[in-house]
Amino acid sequence: MFTELTGVIVTFLLTLLIAFPLGRYIARVYRGDRTLLDFMGPLERFIFRICGIDPTKKMSWKEFLKAMLTINLLWFIYAFVLFLFQGKLPMNPDGNPSMSPDLTFNTAISFLVNCNLQDYSGETGATYLTQLFVITFLQFVSAATGIACLVALLNGLKEKTTQNLGNFWMIFTKTITRILLPICVVIAVLLAFHGTPTSYDGKDTVITMQGDTVQVSRGPAAGMIAIKHLGTNGGGWFGANSAHPLENPDYFTNILEMVAQLLIPIAMIFALGFYINRKKFAYVTFAVMTIGMLCLLIPTMITEIHGNPAIARMGIAQPMGAMEGKEVRFGPAASAFWSIVTTIISTGSVNSMHDSSMALSGLMQLLGMMVNAFYGGCGVGILNYYIYVIIAVFIAGLMVGRTPEFMGHKVEAREVKIAALVTLLSAFLIKGFTALACYVLVYHGNAPWAVKPSAWLNNPRYHGFSEMLYQFTSTNANNGSGFEGLADNNVFWNVTGGIVMILGRYLPIIGPIAIAGLLANKKYIPESSGTLKADSLTFGIMVFVVIIIVTALSYFPPLALGPIAEYFSLKA
Amino acid sequence: MKKLILPALKESFVKLKPGSMFRNPVMFTVYLCTIVMFFVCIWIMSGEHSQGSLTYNVFILVILFITVLFANFAEAIAEARGKAQANSLRKTREDTPAKKVFAVGEIFVGEVKVVPSSQLRKGDVFIAETGDIIPMDGEIIEGLATIDESAITGESAPVIREAGGDKSSVTGGTKVLSDKIKVRVTTEPGESFLDKMIALVEGASRQKTPNEIALTILLASFTLIFLIVCVTLKPFADYAQTPITVAAFVSLFVCLIPTTIGGLLSAIGIAGMDRALRANVITKSGKAVETAGDLDTLLLDKTGTITIGNRKATHFWPADEVDEKTFIEACVLSSLADETPEGKSILELAGATPASYSVNDARFIPFTAETRCSGIDVSGMKIRKGAVDAIRTLVSRAGEIIPLTMEAKVREIASNGGTPLAVSEGGKAMGVIELQDIIKPGIQERFQRLRKMGVKTVMVTGDNPLTAKYIAEKAGVDDFIAEAKPEDKMNYIRKEQQGGKLVAMMGDGTNDAPALAQADVGVAMNSGTQAAKEAGNMVDLDNDPTKLIEIVEIGKQLLMTRGTLTTFSIANDVAKYFAIVPALFITSIPALQALNIMQLKSPESAILSAVIFNAIIIPILIPLALRGVAYRPIGASALLRRNLLIYGLGGIIVPFIGIKAIDLFLGLFM
Question: What is the interface pTM, i.e. ipTM, of the complex?
Answer without folding.
Answer: 0.86
